[in-house]
Design brief:
Blueprint lengths: L15 H41 L4 E6 L2 E5 L3 E6 L7 E8 L4 E10 L13 E3 L5 E3 L7 H22 L7 E7 L2 E6 L2 H11 L1
Antiparallel strand pairs: 1-2, 2-3, 3-4, 4-5, 5-8, 6-7, 8-9
Helix pairs in contact: 1-2
Length: about 200
């Protein structure tokens, strides 16, 4: 899709403000697409916490410490599932036995189909609370910079739009890690939990 009137003719001087305006529109659309992805991710994590409680409610005392922190205790072991601050795509599952031994697993959550990862790809631009276009890029912000950035951002948003149309098909898997080693992948949290119990 071309932005009509961005460059009026071959001799016209492109207007930086028009590039900025279009980058702002792309940035807002990018946030909307990311929010839709994030909503599905958060729903998936919420189900993991529900499954944790369901799987361990028989024989364990369940203690909820917040929306994203829950533990299950017995005299022999305490299991805790939580989300570390700033780690949106993973949860931590910790086992602490009565003898003091501890096992820590990281559960990475990622789309089953890799193409959906593109929905979280950084655009490099955002619109702040005051509606001002911002970027973390350090290049000299001249006409060449804006023209190049507009072209790059437009290509990326086209890809994201295409993938976004299929967001209802987005499903996640869980990768179970211990000491930076991948142990296995799971489609269901319950299977992941039982594997971690078996290993600990």
């Amino acid at each position: 899709m071309r932005w009509e009137g961005l460059i009026d003719n071959n001799t016209a001087i492109p207007d930086i403000e028009r590039y900025k305006e279009k980058l702002g529109q792309i940035s807002i659309e990018n946030i909307r697409i990311y929010d839709a992805y994030n909503k599905k991710l958060e729903a998936y994590k919420a189900n993991m916490f529900k499954d944790f409680k369901r799987c361990l409610s028989n024989g364990f005392v369940i203690e909820k410490r917040g929306e994203k922190n829950i533990s299950a205790k017995s005299p022999q072991i305490t299991l805790t599932l939580w989300e570390e601050k700033g780690k949106d795509n993973s949860l931590v599952l910790n086992f602490r036995k009565a003898d003091g031994k501890s096992w820590r697993f990281v559960l990475y959550i990622e789309p089953i189909e890799k193409k959906f990862e593109r929905l979280t790809e950084d655009l490099g631009w955002y619109v702040d609370q005051e509606g001002k276009l911002e970027t973390f890029k350090d290049e000299i912000k001249n006409l060449v910079f804006y023209k190049s950035e507009f072209s790059r951002a437009e290509k990326l948003i086209k890809i994201k739009r295409s993938i976004y149309r299929e967001i209802d098909d987005l499903n996640f898997k869980i990768s179970l890690w211990h000491n930076n080693n991948l142990l296995d992948n799971f489609l269901e949290f319950e299977d992941c939990l039982y594997k971690a119990v078996e290993l600990s």
